[in-house]
Amino acid sequence: MKTLVFLAAIALPAVAQAQSNSLSGNWCESKRTDSHGAYMDFRDTIKIQFLNNNEYTWMKKNGFIYRGTYKIENGALDMGSRYFKIVRQSPERLVLRDDAATYEFQPYTEAAPNRLPEEKAAVPVSEAQMIAGKWKVFKGTSAETIKELDLANRIKTVMIFDRPDAQGDIGYISGGKDAKNDPSWKINRLENGILYCNGKTVRLFEVSRRDKELILKEGAMTYFLKQFSE
After folding, report:
1. CB 3.0–4.6 Å: which of 39, 180, 183, 197 could bond 203 by disulfide?
2. Does 4 have pLDDT greater than 60?
3. C-alpha angle with apex 205: 203 to 210, nearest 5 degrees?
4. CA atoms in the 13 A half-sphere facing the CB of 85
């Protein structure tokens, strides 16, 4: 009789765990075995997050994240399109089984996302010598909606001379449709952080620099340029 009572006491925690109708936490697959208990090599590691209100997310390595609701009945985990027998459930271990295999999970903590370093503020350029050389646009942004791309007036390259040329210009700007060695604009001067340009049209650019980037702003458009090896 004492032996029977003792065995019943041991069984109670397991019964209580199996009848729990909810799970919680983040679980990552650590082991997989086949129906005969043989170890299976796997690379599609499963991660499950049990959320509030019996919701869950399911993801296999390098796969999509699926979200749904689950329920636990008669020691089984019903996840809608997936159905498992709960073999073991404890704070440190979760073991699930279906017709294909047995899956062992351990708790895990999501790594905090890497924070990108804060972008430095751009500083105005006061002298042309500070930005001498050839620059190419790698990105452009607009504060207004662009209905049609204006390639003819869109900046492609900027050249800043070491010293003014015979006409007194300090550089030139080529547009998207300009032929090689036939730029549409000459840079007349840099004054109070503004590049004054003349050619097929008159253009003024606010000029600044951030690390190895040259930034030209004209109205709603901002151009970002770098010096590339040729």
Report:
1. 197
2. no
3. 155
4. 8
- The residue with tokens 């105005």 is 124
pLDDT digits (tens, 9 = 90+) for 134-158: 999 998 888 876 666 788 899 999 9
CA distance 79 to 59: 13
Could you please report the per-residue DSSP string of the chain?
A: -HHHHHHHHHHHHHHHHHT-----EEEEEEEEE-TTS-B---SS-EEEEE-GGGEEEEEETTS-EEEEE-EEETTEEE-SS-EEEEEEEETTEEEEE-SS-EEEEEE--PPPPPPPPPPPPPEE---GGGG-EEEEEEEEEESS--SS--TTTSEEEEEE-SS--TTS--EEEEETTPPTT--SEEEEEEETTEEEEEESS-EEEEEEEETTEEEEEETTEEEEEE----
Tokens found for residue 13 = 């925690």
Q: Which of 82, 81, 97 is nearest to 18 (CA)?
A: 97
Sign, CA torsion 157/162/164/170: positive
